[in-house]
Amino acid sequence: MNNYLAATQALLFVAGDDGLTLEEISYVVGIDKTAVRQLLEELMEQLKDETSGLELILTAQRYKFVTKASLKPYLEKYAVSPFSSQLSSAALETLAIIAYKQPITRLEVESIRGVQCSGAIQKLLLRDLIEEAGRMDSPGRPKLYRTTTYFMDYFGLETLDQLPDVESLLELNQEESKQLFKNNEDLFAELEQMHQDEETIS
């Protein structure tokens, strides 16, 4: 049972803000929904401990991890601290994909990047570089993300047309765009330079 609990925790972490339903967890872990519900109740109890910074919530029939409301001041302080001021290469790549393919879901971004990107998306949301843009009309109704007006100001852009090869990238399928991002070093160099220029000005 401990292995099932660990697997459930890992799945919820990877699912990020989209969360998972009982049915989805049951299918992946390989146990019935009653057993999954018991695991989730156990996990909820464990996270109530004051030493945990997370809690497990149920919203719209989906379970997901969130930070405890009492810790909000620390998260806000981190968001504006020098430690959080520089975007990592992972965050820049995630931001570039969202800019090109918006509106786009987290899973679609991960399909292109080939790695989990919940952390990068959360950081971009905290920095107000991206925002939620509704939900996709598909099973699970995953959240859609798009860039913000602040994104345009942050990178000194007047329109998205100033991003390189936007139109051609939008016409590519998932596999083709994944390969293009893998090889397009100039794109990330340009975004990195924009970021450094912004840091110098500030």
From TrEMBL:
One of its GO terms (biological process) is chromosome separation. Homodimer. Homodimerization may be required to stabilize the binding of ScpA to the Smc head domains. Component of a cohesin-like complex composed of ScpA, ScpB and the Smc homodimer, in which ScpA and ScpB bind to the head domain of Smc. The presence of the three proteins is required for the association of the complex with DNA. Belongs to the ScpB family. The keyword Cell division applies. This is Segregation and condensation protein B. Signal peptide: none annotated. GO terms for cellular component: cytoplasm. It is found in: Cytoplasm. It holds the Pfam family SMC_ScpB. The keyword Transferase does not apply. Keywords: Cell cycle, Cell division, Chromosome partition, Cytoplasm. Gene3D superfamilies: Winged helix-like DNA-binding domain superfamily/Winged helix DNA-binding domain (1.10.10.10). Participates in chromosomal partition during cell division. May act via the formation of a condensin-like complex containing Smc and ScpA that pull DNA away from mid-cell into both cell halves. Transmembrane segments: none annotated. SUPFAM superfamilies: Winged helix' DNA-binding domain. NCBIfam families: SMC-Scp complex subunit ScpB (TIGR00281).
